[in-house]
Write a structure and sequence with these properties.
single chain, mainly beta
Length: 253
C-alpha cells in the first residue's frame, strides 16, 4: 500500500506500508484452500470480517474496513480506505491501513499496527511485540498493556494509561502523557519541518510524567516544550527542556 497524503512532518518518518498486491491477492482468494490451512480473503469494495475463533492467513481490502472478531487468528490485515478493529483475545501478526483508525480491544496479541491518517487505540492487557506507528493521529495505550517497540506519531498526542512502551515514545506536534504507573523506554519530540507555514503561533507540546511513572531512558526535546514531572516519578537524562516538578493528581495547565 502506498500512502498518498499531505503530511506536515519530518521526511524520515518510518511508516513502511507494503504495496497491496491486489491481483495476486484476488488470485489467492479465488483458489481452493487446503482444509487444514488458514484461508485468505481479498476485496476491492466492501468490508471483511474474520469470524470468531477462526484462523486466517491474509485479509486484504482496498475500500472497506476489516473487523477481526473475538479469538480469531490473522497473520496480516491490510486495507487502504477503512479502519481495522480487533476484538478481545484475538491474535494478529500485523494491522496496516492508510486512511482509517486501528482499534485494538483488551487481551489482544499483536505484532504491529501502522496507519497514516488515523489514530491507534490499544485497550488494557494487550501485548504488542513490535511497534505502533501513525502519521496523522493519536496513540492511546491502556493499563498493563506492553508495547515492545516504539510508539510513534507526527501530528498527534500519545497517552499511556498505566501501560508500558519499552521502546521510545516519539512525536512532533502533540502532547505526551504518562499516567499513573506508566513506563517508557525513552521520549523524543522532534523539531517540525518548516515549510511555507509558520509554527510560531502553535501551542507548545505538553509532556506530563505522572505519579509513579517511569522513563528509563533519555528524554530528548528538539523543540521547545512544557515538561512536568511528578514528585514520585522516576526519569533519566533530560535534553532540551527544564522539568517542572509537581505534586497531586494533575499537572499545571
Amino acid at each position: 500500500m502506498r500512502p498518498v497524503a499531505p503530511v506536515a512532518s519530518r521526511p524520515s518518518t518510518r511508516i513502511r506500508l507494503r504495496p497491496l498486491l491486489l491481483a495476486a491477492a484476488l488470485a489467492l482468494g479465488s483458489g481452493a484452500a487446503l482444509a487444514d490451512s488458514p484461508r485468505s480473503e481479498s476485496k476491492v469494495l466492501g468490508s471483511i470480517t474474520a469470524q470468531a475463533g477462526q484462523r486466517y492467513d491474509s485479509l486484504d481490502s482496498v475500500n472497506g474496513g476489516i473487523s477481526i472478531q473475538r479469538g480469531a487468528t490473522v497473520r496480516s490485515a491490510e486495507t487502504v480506505n477503512g479502519g481495522i478493529s480487533i476484538d478481545e483475545g484475538a491474535t494478529v501478526g500485523s494491522a496496516e491501513t492508510v486512511n482509517g483508525g486501528i482499534s485494538i480491544a483488551g487481551k489482544v496479541t499483536l505484532g504491529s499496527a501502522q496507519t497514516v491518517n488515523g489514530g491507534i487505540r490499544l485497550d488494557d492487557d494487550g501485548q504488542v511485540s513490535g511497534e505502533l506507528e501513525t502519521v496523522n493521529g493519536a496513540i492511546r495505550i491502556g493499563a498493563r498493556s506492553v508495547v515492545a517497540g516504539d510508539a510513534e506519531t507526527v501530528n498527534g498526542g500519545i497517552r499511556l494509561d498505566g501501560g508500558s512502551v519499552q521502546g521510545v515514545i516519539r512525536t512532533v506536534n502533540g502532547d505526551i502523557t504518562l499516567g499513573r504507573g506508566a513506563h517508557a523506554g525513552g521520549i523524543e519530540i522532534d523539531a517540525p519541518s518548516r515549510g511555507w507555514w509558520s509554527w510560531s503561533s502553535e501551542k507548545l507540546p505538553r509532556v506530563v510524567i505522572g505519579r509513579d511513572a517511569r522513563v528509563s531512558g533519555p528524554m530528548v526535546f528538539k523543540r521547545e516544550v512544557r515538561l512536568f514531572v511528578h514528585a514520585t516519578a522516576s526519569i533519566g537524562d533530560v535534553r532540551g527542556a527544564t522539568a517542572v516538578r509537581f505534586e497531586g493528581d494533575d499537572a499545571p495547565e
